[in-house]
Structure prediction request, 644 residues.
Amino acid sequence: MGSRASRLLREEEIEEIKKETGFSHSQITRLYSRFTSLDKGENGTLSREDFQRIPELAINPLGDRIINAFFPEGEDQVNFRGFMRTLAHFRPIEDNEKNKNPSATEPLNSRTNKLLFAFRLYDLDRDDKISRDELLQVLRMMVGVNISDEQLGSIADRTIQEADTNGDSCISFNEFIKASFVVNIHICTVVLVLVNI
Amino acid sequence: MDVFWAGALWALKIWLYLIILLIMIPSMFGFSLGISEIYMTILVKTLEWATLNIQKANSDEGTLKPSSSNGLIQRENGSMEKELEELRRSRPKPPVGGDFTLSDCFYFIRQGIESIVDDQVTQRFTSEELVSWNLLTRTNNDFQYISLKLTLVYGLGIIVRYCILAPLRITLTVIGVSWLVIGTSAVGLLPNWRIKFWLSELVHVMCYRICARGLSATIRYHNRENKPKKGGICVANHTSPIDIVILCTDGCYAMVGQVHGGLMGIIQRAMVRSCPHVWFERSEMKDRHLVTKRLKDHVNDKKKLPILIFPEGTCINNTSVMMFKKGSFEIGTTIYPVAIKYDPKFGDAFWNSSKHSMVSYLLRMMTSWALVCNVWYLPAMHQQEGEDAVQFANRVKSAIAHQGGLVDLQWDGGLKRAKVKETFKEQQQKNPWYKCCTVQMNSGVAR
Prediction:
């Protein structure tokens, strides 16, 4: 697969991406051919439009937020490196990675980074806090029009109340981590098992 | 110089005589001299040998090719929903605010990322992935140097395909199409006697048989007893315009479609002279009532041929069946489902119309190894009581998908060009977990 794609991707580049993201060589070439097939403009970068052309993503209630996560602030194009960096968050945590030297920089797919990705999805204004408004917006996306504003408001209030420990009526990242400590990260983050070629 | 031209003319003559004697005449009357069978046997042997060689080379490197059905990721179907459910149950129920947790968004994040890496829809509009290289350079498995032997065979293949097969096939197709135009025009001059229908059918079938030879088509028809009968509608999954040739080689159908200009227009006008087809002007196509009425009229006339419709409305890469447009199921007549499955080993039959023009597609087909396909006639289906057209269409689609070994998808093939409509988001809300989440939230609030 993707012999045509890998020809365009330089070997050094693959090495660098491998180091940064932890994906294997074959996974990178496979994802590169996926990247090029999504790239309808054929300019080596993906735009928001390119993502929205995936029907399953377009109907995802959080689709727009997920797409946003691929784009650095203020930019509307993402290259293959950036694409892979974001995808790397969802690589399963492997056993040998757990016992690694803790002083080294944390891998992109660590539990904290996975949670940070979810946190940023809520935190639209990027002030490192989830406000009631931001929570309401995401809730509305997830439930559609089936629940009244009032009901949704009480859900938001309850959620903040439960998670908020310092009494600022917002959820900070630390509070977010604590609130989701029960979550088994292996299941609740994306277990994206790439077939080993 | 004169000698050269005389020689060339002579060679051309011999070439034509040979074609007519060895291919045209047998194919017109539907028997075979066994030449194509010998070719197919050699081809199958060669490809098997090539696959073996590739596998051997791969196992030396210690890599394993994924099977094409696996795709890019392993989806753990359903387990995620179960886990979330358990998570919910184990937690104490809060007094107000239902059952939402901040981590609920993980479900959608995961789905979203999965669809970015590998989705069900867009891959259906590009060529099917092959498990093993078939010595052609057009699919995911491009030319690759594996061994000297294989490269030599590949080179030999190029010579055979482009220098022998392609000219032969092009000649056949030109003869076939001109035969159709001339034959149907001539039959069209006859008065409306019974013999006219008989002759018209004969001319059509002959033409399609010649064209089928022009594509080296090896077609296996299954369950012929279920062949579409007059006064019904035949629906099939759509991979390329060649589908028509494939089906018509075994029987005649009335076509439905838009009036075209150019060469297509000439063929259409000639065909409609000899037997009734349903062609619409572009402006008429938009008028749904008119379309339905004309189809109804056609179907109610029991003398007319069964209509052939591809309800997907667009070509799909032969791995799946997409949403059937409900139009043909609203007419309330017998539906004869047909499943067509091409064997991708011998050449990719999918017409990627956004990438290739009709002519370049046909040239690609004529320079492929062969066109091998299976056609299954399914038992006739009727709309059941209490079933609306959409449900009926889905039932027929599932039957075709099941028989042809294709993936049954709910998605609209129109997504090839258009974006998802807002109404599609409602489909997502029918998702079991999504529903359960909403219901639980509701009940939580109510408490």
Remarks:
- Residues 95 and 110 of chain A are 12 Å apart (CA to CA).
